[in-house]
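Example 9 (inverse folding). The structure is encoded as follows.
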């Protein structure tokens, strides 16, 4: 049994959605999965397995940041996960993005330490599995969900980022900042599984506060439905 995700063999589905927030994991499981069964509560890393349209799907909390997400991803893969999709929030730097819109992640600039440690400092360009990326893009289009596809920055220090520093990345095509995708993409390549990410915009970086909860929740709903529809297409 893994150290942190204390699940029995066979309790985790091959397809797994990865929210950072345990409350969001529970909401996804209770709202969208048929007969969800909890398989882990240790350290607040809530995990559930049920069925979506008859297909086994798990929802697993990662916690915040690349170090925590990498631990969870490693252990899920040992438990049989083969398709991992991050479903989280992001702070936009592209001024065209509006609250609750989605970002289908095409690549992640790794401004974090987890990938650097795995790689021994070597340069690397973390990208999602192409089939997962295309499935997410198709699902967003099919469902008519407002979205953009492109680059994000994965960072470590949430409060260290300045508005000016973040917005400078927009000139290089970065749409938003988040905290887990680059490590997830690297680990998936290393462990020979598939990974992707779709994010809901919570705010523009530099805004004094997040958008109203009901606006963000609409983005989370859209994001979850896009991710669930996408994982049905990928094996």
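The amino acid assigned to each position is listed next.
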């Amino acid at each position: 049994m893994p150290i942190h995700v204390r699940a029995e063999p066979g309790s985790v589905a091959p397809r797994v959605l990865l929210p950072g927030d345990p409350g969001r994991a529970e909401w996804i499981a209770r709202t969208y999965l048929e007969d969800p069964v909890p398989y882990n509560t240790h350290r607040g890393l809530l995990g559930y397995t049920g069925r979506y349209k008859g297909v086994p799907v798990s929802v697993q909390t990662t916690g915040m940041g690349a170090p925590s997400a990498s631990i969870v991803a490693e252990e899920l893969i040992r438990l049989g996960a083969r398709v991992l999709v991050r479903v989280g929030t992001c702070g936009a730097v592209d001024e065209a993005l509006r609250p609750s819109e989605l970002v289908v992640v095409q690549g992640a600039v790794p401004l974090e330490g987890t990938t650097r440690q795995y790689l021994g400092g070597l340069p690397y360009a973390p990208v999602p599995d192409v089939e997962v990326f295309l499935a997410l893009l198709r699902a967003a289009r099919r469902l008519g969900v407002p979205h953009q596809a492109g680059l994000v920055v994965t960072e470590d220090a949430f409060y260290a980022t300045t508005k000016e520093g973040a917005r400078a990345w927009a000139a290089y095509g970065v749409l938003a900042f988040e905290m887990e995708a680059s490590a997830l993409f690297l680990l998936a390549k290393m462990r020979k599984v598939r990974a992707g990410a779709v994010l809901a915009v919570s705010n523009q970086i530099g805004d004094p506060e997040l958008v109203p909860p009901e606006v963000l929740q609409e983005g989370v709903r859209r994001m979850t439905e896009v991710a669930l529809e996408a994982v049905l297409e990928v094996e």
